[in-house]
Amino acid sequence: MIILASASPRRQELLKLIAENFIVIPSDIDEGVPNNIETEKSPEYLAVKKAKHIYENGHRNDVVIGCDTGVFIDGKMLGKPKNKEDAKQMLTELSGRKHKVITGCCICGNSKVNSFSQVTEVEFYELTEEEIESYIATGEPMDKAGSYGIQGKGSLLVKGIVGDYFNVVGLPVARLNKELNG
Ligand SMILES: Cc1cn([C@H]2C[C@H](O)[C@@H](COP(=O)(O)OP(=O)(O)OP(=O)(O)O)O2)c(=O)[nH]c1=O
């Protein structure tokens, strides 16, 4: 059985493009990352931790997929905003610039751990304070890395992307399909 170790409804929807049958068991881990892990490797590190946590707790006969998505700019990672102020700060930083969205994925199965990082470059239009505030008022930023959702009203902030769109939404379906199904 394939297990998706994620609470994200978007990942569940996207995994249907690859797998007909799977079950969802969210992996409740501590999302702290040790200092010796390179910043841009943080999502992959957490993806491995999420997948292993489920695999090693009663699912060694299954294939477990774990993922984590982060937004990277100026050498740091932007995760989910803690509050509206935090979201405003992140969107102000992203305004008018390019950033990377990195999704780390891990597949645990048959006593093997296979992990990778997929990178998509996203460029934002210049945003006014008013635009940022009205976007935050939609509530959309609050559960998303970097405080935006490219699949929603956040699409209006985006000037262009280079790479896999679905990687930004949280699951790099094409690469994951190749890793899973060869
Ligand atoms: C940048 C961006 C992120 N996101 C989402 C993808 C992820 O769900 C979320 C980042 O949080 P994650 O910690 O990667 O995932 P999660 O907490 O939603 O689920 P779980 O840990 O159980 O797997 O941000 C979008 O939906 N759209 C976007 O454009």
UniProtKB/TrEMBL annotation:
The record marks R10, T69, Q151 as: Important for substrate specificity. It holds the Pfam family Maf. Its main location: cytoplasm. It comes from Ruminococcus intestinalis. The active site is at D68 (proton acceptor). This is dTTP/UTP pyrophosphatase. It is an enzyme of class 3 (hydrolase). Keywords: Cytoplasm, Hydrolase, Nucleotide metabolism. The keyword Cytoplasm applies. Belongs to the Maf family. YhdE subfamily. It catalyses: dTTP + H2O = dTMP + diphosphate + H(+); UTP + H2O = UMP + diphosphate + H(+). Its cofactor is a divalent metal cation. Nucleoside triphosphate pyrophosphatase that hydrolyzes dTTP and UTP. May have a dual role in cell division arrest and in preventing the incorporation of modified nucleotides into cellular nucleic acids. PANTHER family: BIFUNCTIONAL DTTP/UTP PYROPHOSPHATASE/METHYLTRANSFERASE PROTEIN-RELATED, BIFUNCTIONAL DTTP_UTP PYROPHOSPHATASE_METHYLTRANSFERASE PROTEIN-RELATED. The keyword Transport does not apply. It is found in: Cytoplasm. Gene3D superfamilies: 3.90.950.10. Its EC number is 3.6.1.9. HAMAP family: Maf (MF_00528).
